[in-house]
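Figure 6 in text form: structure in, sequence out.
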């Protein structure tokens, strides 16, 4: 049975050790980084840089604690993510969100290059076939996956699995483009955007939120370029008049997440990855959206494990016990205590991704929770 270490977000004494940064220090010591990483070994600290307006990412103070702990054992860490928007713009977004060399104490780099195409094709499974793993993540010998647990428009629940699957895979590949990259997971390349002109209020949020400029308007008519669109679904999510739809297959999508995560993990030797899930500022949306809604539940704490599936299952189990917060989307949707908050928010069968990850041998849903 896998071990999952946990520290609560509650601080009941007025001392550093009871703060969340202090508790993260204690968790990292308890896990024993020397058992995973070697002196002079390069270690990727994988996180999400966020978006302009999305400020509820893993806070720089926590990334710094991870970096400092790795440095203490002589490892050489760097903080990384894959390109969501143009590379230089994304680095500036990271800087605005406080993630830079000065704040985290290590280089901040893009895993798939400034153009998001530096990747290596890796076998992924029955659905995806092959997927373009970011070259830096493919080549680095070790990794700490720092994930902000939250909701997600496609995945329902987003934690370490989503961070690996979408964040470890390049946005595109030099030869086969987005269809071999992150976009291959969203609707498996099959979704076609549908627009109902009669319902459209011409607010242009869909156009403005598209990271690829795949949507344009001319003479009040929407034009969609399906050749460059990677079917992320942001346009459908922000349409407040139900004028847009991007059909997809939830089961195939969740299963493809597990396949992509397996492809990323498969580029590492055994016991060279640990997972840290931050159950804090648990908002309804992904950190790639250009905003951050108020949290739907109170901060819960930090979980660490070497087992991807176990840390995800433990995170979900804690969320299932959480109480919805007032003045949040959870209250707006009339979600009450005892209900599955994230399932009610997005109506996505998110547990499939965890079940599939276990089926693919990425870990076990059975775990022992050890509170520090």
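Output sequence:
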């Amino acid at each position: 049975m896998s071990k999952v270490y946990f520290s609560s977000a509650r601080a009941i004494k007025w001392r550093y050790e009871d703060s969340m940064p202090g508790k993260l220090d204690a968790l990292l010591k308890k896990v024993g980084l020397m058992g995973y990483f070697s002196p002079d070994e390069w270690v990727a600290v994988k996180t999400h840089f966020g978006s302009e307006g999305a400020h509820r990412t893993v806070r720089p103070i926590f990334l710094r604690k991870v970096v400092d702990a790795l440095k203490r054992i002589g490892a050489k860490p760097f903080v990384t993510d894959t390109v969501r928007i143009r590379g230089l713009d994304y680095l500036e977004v990271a800087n605005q969100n406080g993630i830079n060399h000065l704040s985290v104490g290590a280089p901040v780099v893009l895993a798939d290059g400034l153009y998001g195409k530096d990747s290596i094709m890796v076998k992924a499974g029955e659905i995806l076939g092959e997927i373009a793993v970011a070259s830096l993540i493919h080549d680095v010998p070790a990794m700490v996956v720092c994930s902000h647990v939250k909701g997600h428009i496609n995945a329902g629940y987003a934690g370490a699995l989503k961070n690996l699957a979408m964040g470890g895979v390049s946005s595109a590949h030099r030869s086969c483009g987005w269809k071999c990259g992150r976009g291959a997971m969203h609707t498996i390349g099959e979704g076609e955007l549908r627009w109902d002109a009669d319902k459209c209020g011409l607010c242009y949020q869909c156009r403005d939120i598209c990271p690829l400029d795949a949507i344009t308007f001319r003479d009040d008519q929407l034009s969609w370029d399906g050749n460059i669109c990677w079917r992320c679904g942001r346009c459908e999510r922000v349409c407040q008049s139900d004028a847009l739809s991007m059909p997809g297959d939830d089961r195939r999508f969740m299963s493809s997440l597990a396949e992509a995560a397996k492809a990323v993990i498969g580029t590492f030797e055994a016991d060279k990855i640990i997972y840290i899930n931050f159950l804090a500022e648990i908002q309804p949306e992904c950190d790639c959206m250009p905003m951050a809604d108020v949290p739907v539940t109170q901060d819960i704490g930090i979980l660490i494990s070497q087992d991807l599936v176990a840390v995800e299952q433990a995170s979900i189990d804690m969320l299932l016990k959480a109480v919805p917060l007032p003045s949040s989307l959870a209250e707006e949707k009339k979600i009450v205590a005892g209900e599955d908050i994230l399932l009610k928010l997005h109506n996505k069968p998110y547990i499939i991704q965890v079940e599939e990850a276990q089926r693919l041998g990425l870990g076990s849903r059975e775990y022992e929770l050890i509170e520090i």
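Caption detail: The domain at 191-245 is CATH 3.30.70.20 (Alpha-Beta Plaits).
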